[in-house]
């Protein structure tokens, strides 16, 4: 991958989380390519906007799936984990809006390929990892995979 270093993302013992994280990386990568093409004038703004929307939709779904599992299993740090999700979704919406209104590709690139990956790696290593460990350690846990 050219824009994000997927090797920084640890495998977690819940396969659905790994799939969501891999998809998030793929969408970011596609958005990076669209931004580059737009800068080189070989691709249109429409593609950038479309991929930005796809990223926002997937990020919401990704977070909702984790939140559902946390509620179902009574994960004690649910409010903190969900609070981080909500904060990032609001930030992502704000950056997307700023790009739609101002069209500043440098700002968007900085956000997508510096701010988001740094947060993402940190979040997965801490809150997601803690959540996955809690969920699979519960008696009768299903959907777990040895890693
Ligand atoms: Fe996650
Ligand atoms: Fe999370």
Automatic annotation (TrEMBL):
Natural source organism: Anaeromyxobacter dehalogenans (strain ATCC BAA-258 / DSM 21875 / 2CP-1)
PROSITE patterns named among the record's database cross-references: HEMERYTHRINS (PS00550)
Domain Hemerythrin-like: 15-129
Organism domain of life: Bacteria
Keyword Iron: yes
GO MF term (any one): metal ion binding
Keyword Transmembrane appears in the UniProt entry: no
Listed Pfam families: Hemerythrin
This protein's UniProt keywords: Iron, Metal-binding, Oxygen transport, Transport
SUPFAM superfamilies for this protein: Hemerythrin-like
Taxonomic placement: Bacteria, Pseudomonadati, Myxococcota, Myxococcia, Myxococcales
Record protein name field: Hemerythrin-like metal-binding protein
InterPro entries recorded: Haemerythrin_Fe_BS, Hemerythrin, Hemerythrin-like, Hemerythrin-like_sf, Hemerythrin_metal-bd
NCBIfam families in UniProt: hemeryth_dom
Transmembrane region(s): none
Homology family: Belongs to the hemerythrin family.
């Amino acid at each position: 991958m050219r824009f994000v270093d997927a090797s920084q993302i640890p495998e977690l013992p819940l396969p659905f989380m790994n799939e969501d994280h891999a998809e998030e990386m793929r969408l970011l990568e596609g958005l990076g390519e669209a931004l580059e093409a737009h800068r080189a004038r070989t691709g249109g703004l429409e593609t950038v906007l479309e991929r930005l929307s796809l990223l926002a939709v997937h990020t919401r779904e990704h977070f909702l799936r984790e939140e559902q599992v946390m509620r179902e299993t009574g994960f004690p740090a649910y409010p903190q984990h969900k609070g981080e999700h909500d904060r990032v979704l609001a930030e992502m919406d704000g950056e997307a809006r700023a790009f739609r209104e101002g069209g500043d590709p440098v700002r968007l690139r900085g956000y997508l390929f510096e701010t988001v990956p740094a947060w993402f790696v940190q979040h997965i290593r801490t809150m997601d990892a803690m959540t996955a460990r809690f969920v699979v350690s519960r008696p009768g846990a299903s959907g777990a995979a040895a890693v």
